[in-house]
Amino acid sequence: MTTSPLAPGRRAHRLVRAACLLLPLSCAAACAAPAARRGGPLDAELALLLPHPSAGASAARRGAPAWREGRRRLADLRRKVEGAGPRTLRVRLALREPRTGKVLEARGAIAIAPPAADGRARPAGSAGLAADGALRMILLGPGGTTALDLWARGDRFRFAVPALDLLRRGDASTPRAARRGLPVDFLRWWMLRPAAGTLLWYERADGTDAFILRDGDAVIDLRVNDRGVIGARRTTWAAGEGERRRRLDEEVVIAEGLGCGDVRYAQASTGLLVTVTCEAEERGRAPDPRAFVDPDAIRAGGGS
Known about the structure:
Number of strands: 13
Strand content: 25-35%
Shape: globular
Helix content: 10-25%
Order of helices and strands: HHHHHEEEEEEHEEEEEEEH
Number of helices: 7
């Protein structure tokens, strides 16, 4: 898509505004505090809206009815995610800059290709995608400039803020500490497989299902109430050789549900608070497969 040319000064002004829009995200890894803090901006609300059942009330054990019920409810949640299929979300984003409190806005689209179900290939339009799914998010800032471009496929990712000439790439071999502050892992988990992980604990009380899941180096406190509201706290841990485990970061999300709805996200290490409003959802037609091709590979191939 082409845009009308701008006068040099006006173009520079718009590029600066676009750069400022996602600056907190782009520098988050460098600006993050040495240790993740507890008590992020959504912690109290998560506790009130989706209270965690008492840990001492009825801890589930393997083979116990509560444990079987937890596994069944978690499987139902996963089937709901898988059933959504490939889709595109049109979203509006409001980001509260943690240092100044200023709220910045952007609009864009998120193309989602969920992981293959039980190892089977996805329907037409997603053939060849990694078994772990694929994600592409493009947000436009002031003046229609690209403020953020996130591509993730399997364990690979590419995070770009073009106005800052900033580009970060990584995969499963990228050290966890090097990804700290970037919400890539969280977005992949939330958008592609929000119920994934090994079930460690389950309890139901006061109309709320509470799951504790382990997903690689992360532990997720996942809660879903009978109204469909869903919340999660994802705590990422890391440990060097011979060192004790240390908490790298905590991220909290509260959403109206798994479909098209309002979502709020907070990151403890940076104080970042983001509200995403889903304006439309396209399920009838799968996203263009080219959206899930590595953008750098497309450029290397001459745009094909």
